[in-house]
Amino acid sequence: MNISEFTGYGDKMEQLMRSVQAGRIVHALLFVGPRGSGKRTMARLFAQAMLCKGREPRPCGVCPACKRFLAGSHPDVKTLRPEKKTIGVDDIRDLIDYLSLKPYEGGRHIAIIEQADSMTPPAQNALLKTLENPDGAAMFFLIAEGDRGLLPTIRSRCQAVRFRDLPVEDCAAVLARRGVAPERARMLAGMAQGSVGRALELDADERAMALREKVLESLETLRDAASVSRAAALLEDDKGAEGDILDIMELWARDRMAAQAGAQPYQAGEYDRLVKGKIDGRALLKGVVEARKRLASNVAWPGVLENMYFDLINKENSGRTTLSWQR
Ligand SMILES: [Zn+2]
């Protein structure tokens, strides 16, 4: 993996990296963005590139410094993350002590602070002094989902870089480059709504993929009023997964609408299932919205589900929605 592989950020990040390497930049970068948007991966790439002693383009990935970094054993890197909920002032003092030593390999110290917005105010004030009086050797990477928890004085001493979720297409491309089969990459990118991190989690999450399969099976079982309880029974026991089930249905509904309109759906690998599906996308989407409302007002899940399924079947019978039932 190198920096140019960050679709949607490539040029910007490469420029930033050149500035960092040329020492043209403040020695603290603040990477802010939603979970799974790549900020931690990018911070680690920057850190690795700064320590790399191999050939350009850096990080080379094969020199001893890169190998130590990737193994988590580089002596000049310190990563802080909240052990419980916060990073306290003692953690920052330990970090400052560490930074007062000479870098072991003669280059720079790298300090990576994950969930930086979880630093307590005293911790932030302690860090501030180090940020204000750089002794030259340390480079700080602060990573946070949002910067509201950070003191303005901290924010003003960092160069902020904003991350966002990618368009689904770009997310799929990133996954494919990481070795996920293209069709699965599209499906995962769609399910994760463009969050690369979330998509990779899903890829490794057997339970999530099995749940998705069960949801699709349930929707395919739903054919008429007589099949409602059988279709609903497939999902009624998944206590605690109601939200996930509705999310999966929502994406399926949107993809179904795309397929019905002749557009390329996200879950293109399942195109056959999408176009052959009996349930109308728009009707399902409405059903999902309604089901979320009922859940929020404490209607029991089996009731919510059966209600939604009966509505879907009734819409079909009343002819208010167009159903295509292709073979
Ligand atoms: Zn290297």
Q: Could you characterize the architecture of this molecule?
A:
With 327 residues, this protein is α/β, with parallel strands linked by helices. The chain folds into two domains: 3-162, Rossmann fold, CATH 3.40.50.300; 205-318. It has 15 helices and five strands. A five-stranded parallel beta sheet has the order 2-3-4-1-5, sandwiched between helices. Helix 10 (206-221) crosses helix 12, helix 12 (242-260) packs antiparallel against helix 14 and helix 14 runs antiparallel to helix 15 (301-318). The radius of gyration is 25 Å and the shape is elongated. Residues 319-327 have low confidence and may be disordered. It binds zinc ion (ZN). The site of zinc ion has 8 residues, from helix 3.
What's the alpha carbon Rg, rounded to whole Å? 25 Å
Strand order of the largest sheet: 2-3-4-1-5
- First and last CA, distance: 44 Å
Spell out which ligands are present.
zinc ion
Kindly identify the CATH topology of the largest domain.
Rossmann fold
Q: What is the helix tally? A: 15
Number of strand segments: 5
What is the H/E string?
HEHHEHEHEHEHHHHHHHHH
Work out the strand percent: 5-15%
Count of domain modules = 2
What is the name of the CATH superfamily of the largest domain?
A: P-loop containing nucleotide triphosphate hydrolases
The CATH class name of the largest domain reads Alpha Beta
Unreliable runs: 319-327
**Overall outline:** elongated
Instruction: Please state the structural category.
Output: alpha/beta
Average predicted local confidence, pLDDT: 85
Describe the biggest sheet? 5 strands, parallel
Helix residue percentage: 40-55%
Q: What is the correct CATH architecture of the largest domain? A: 3-Layer(aba) Sandwich
